[in-house]
Specification:
Elements: H1 3-12, H2 17-24, H3 27-55, H4 60-63, E1 74-80, H5 84-95, E2 103-110, H6 116-127, E3 131-136, H7 146-156, E4 161-165, E5 169-171, H8 176-180, E6 189-192, E7 194-197, H9 203-224, E8 235-239, H10 240-245, H11 259-267, E9 272-275, E10 282-285, H12 291-302, H13 310-336, H14 341-367, H15 373-396
C-alpha cells in the first residue's frame, strides 16, 4: 500500500500528522529535510532580496531623474606602468568622453621601466590639455604599493569629484564619465560602478564571467543597502574631501593588497553609498588567458578577507556555507530516495536554477552583458568547494609580501 494511502488513512482515523511523520521518517531523514529547506530559504533571501535589489537598482530614483542632475567638474585618476597598449588605445577613450562639464584626467606613471612610457604620455599631454601626467621614479631603497600612486593622483587632482579606474579595463561608452558622475550627490559619497569581463569564445571565459557576476552581486548588494565593503578597483568614485578628511590609506599604506577594501569599510559607517548600474557606465576588462593566471589573481585579492569586519565576513561566508548545505542535503535526499521528500528536493533544485538564471539575466540586461547561464548554474554548484580551496591555499601558502 502506498505512503499516500497510509497518510489518508491516518487522517481518517484522526491520527495526528506529526505522529504519522515521526513513525514513517527517521530523525536523520527529517534533519536532512530541514537543512535543505532552511538552506533554500536562505538562498531565496540572497537572490530575491539582496541580489535582485542590484538588478532592479535605479540611481535616478534617488536624484529625481538623471535629467535633473547638473554635470559637475570631475577628475579621473588612473595608474599606469609600462602599459603601452592602454596608453595608445584606451587612454584616448577616456580623454574623448562626451561630458558637458570640465574634466581632468590624471595619469600617475608608477616607476616606469621603459623610456617609451613617459614619451608617449608627454605626446598625449601636448595634444590633450586636460591630461595631467605625474611620474613616480623607481627607488631601490623605498618599496611602495599601488595605493601610494593613487594618493599621489588624489593630490594632483584639480577637481573635488574623483572617478578612479585602472589600466586593466576600458570604458564601454563615450558617456561613461557622464553616467558615473551622476553618483556625486554629496561630498561624502562612495560611488560603486560595474566592471564586466569581455566576452570571448570558450567555456573558461564564460566561467570567468559567471564568477565575476556572482561576486558583483555580493559586493553591490551591500552597497545598494548602504553598507559597502568593497568597490570595483576598475570603476569607482569618491570626493577628494572625503579621502583626505579620513587620511586616505594611511593606516593601510604598507599593506600590499586590499587597502582599498579596508578603507571603504572604514568610511562606510558615515559615507553615502551610490551605485551606478547603467550599460553606458560600465567598464570592461580582458579575460584571463590561463586558469593559473585567473586563480592566482583571485587568491591574491582574497588575502585581506581576514581583516574584514565581522559583519562582512558573515555576509560573504554565510552565502557559501548555506549553498554547500543545500547541495549536500538535496543530493542526500535524492540518493536515499526518501519518500516524497526527494521530489521536493528536485523541485527546489529546479526553482533555484530558475531564480539564478532569471536574476542573472536581469543584471546582464542592465550592464550590456550576455548572461552565461550554464556557467552560472555550474558555479552555484561548485562555489563552496572553490572557496574552500581558495581559503585553505591562502592560509597554508601565506603571502610573504602581504606587508611591505
Amino acid at each position: 500500500m502506498s505512503q499516500r494511502t497510509d497518510f489518508v488513512k491516518s487522517v481518517t482515523n484522526k491520527k495526528q500528522p506529526v505522529e504519522y511523520i515521526l513513525s514513517k521518517y527517521g530523525i536523520i531523514e527529517l534533519s536532512i529535510t530541514c537543512v535543505a529547506f532552511v538552506s533554500f530559504v536562505v538562498f531565496l533571501c540572497y537572490y530575491l532580496g539582496a541580489f535582485l535589489s542590484v538588478a532592479n537598482h535605479r540611481h535616478s530614483k534617488k536624484v529625481g531623474g538623471l535629467r535633473n542632475v547638473e554635470p559637475q567638474p570631475v577628475s579621473v585618476i588612473v595608474v599606469v606602468k609600462d602599459d603601452f597598449d592602454y596608453i595608445e588605445n584606451t587612454l584616448p577613450v577616456i580623454l574623448n568622453q562626451s561630458y558637458d562639464a570640465p574634466y581632468q584626467v590624471v595619469v600617475v606613471c608608477d616607476t616606469p621601466e621603459s623610456y617609451r612610457t613617459p614619451e608617449m604620455l608627454k605626446e598625449l599631454s601636448a595634444k590633450y590639455k586636460h591630461l595631467y601626467v605625474t611620474i613616480i621614479p623607481a627607488d631601490s631603497k623605498f618599496e611602495h604599493t599601488n595605493k601610494l600612486a593613487l594618493t599621489v593622483g588624489m593630490k594632483a587632482a584639480k577637481y573635488d569629484n574623483i572617478i578612479i579606474t585602472s589600466s586593466e579595463c576600458t570604458p564601454v561608452s563615450g558617456d561613461w564619465l557622464g553616467v558615473m558622475s551622476y553618483g556625486f550627490t554629496s561630498d561624502h559619497v562612495i560611488i560603486s560602478g560595474y566592471n564586466r569581463i569581455s566576452r570571448e569564445k570558450g567555456f573558461f571565459n564564460s566561467f570567468q564571467r559567471a564568477v565575476n557576476i556572482h561576486e558583483s552581486f555580493m559586493m553591490l548588494s551591500r552597497a545598494v543597502a548602504g553598507h559597502p565593503y568593497r568597490v570595483s578597483r576598475h570603476n569607482n568614485g569618491q570626493s577628494k574631501k572625503l579621502f583626505f578628511n579620513n587620511k586616505g590609506f594611511t593606516e593601510y599604506l604598507r599593506l600590499n593588497v586590499g587597502e582599498s577594501d579596508l578603507y571603504i569599510q572604514q568610511i562606510a559607517r558615515y559615507a553615502e553609498s551610490n551605485v551606478i548600474i547603467n550599460p553606458k557606465g560600465v567598464t570592461e576588462s580582458k579575460s584571463a588567458t590561463t586558469f593559473t593566471e585567473w586563480y592566482n589573481k583571485r587568491k591574491f585579492y582574497s588575502y585581506p578577507f581576514r581583516y574584514f569586519s565581522a559583519g562582512c565576513r558573515m555576509f560573504i561566508s554565510s552565502s557559501y556555507l548555506f549553498t554547500a548545505l543545500f547541495w549536500l542535503s538535496v543530493i542526500a535526499l535524492i540518493s536515499l530516495m526518501v519518500p516524497f521528500t526527494w521530489i521536493g528536493a528536485a523541485a527546489m533544485i529546479l526553482i533555484r536554477w530558475f531564480v539564478i538564471a532569471a536574476v542573472t539575466k536581469k543584471l546582464c540586461r542592465r550592464t550590456g552583458d550576455n548572461p552565461p547561464y550554464l556557467s552560472a548554474l555550474l558555479y552555484d554548484f561548485i562555489s563552496p568547494a572553490e572557496i574552500t580551496i581558495l581559503t585553505v591555499s591562502r592560509n597554508i601558502l601565506s603571502l610573504k609580501n602581504l606587508w611591505v
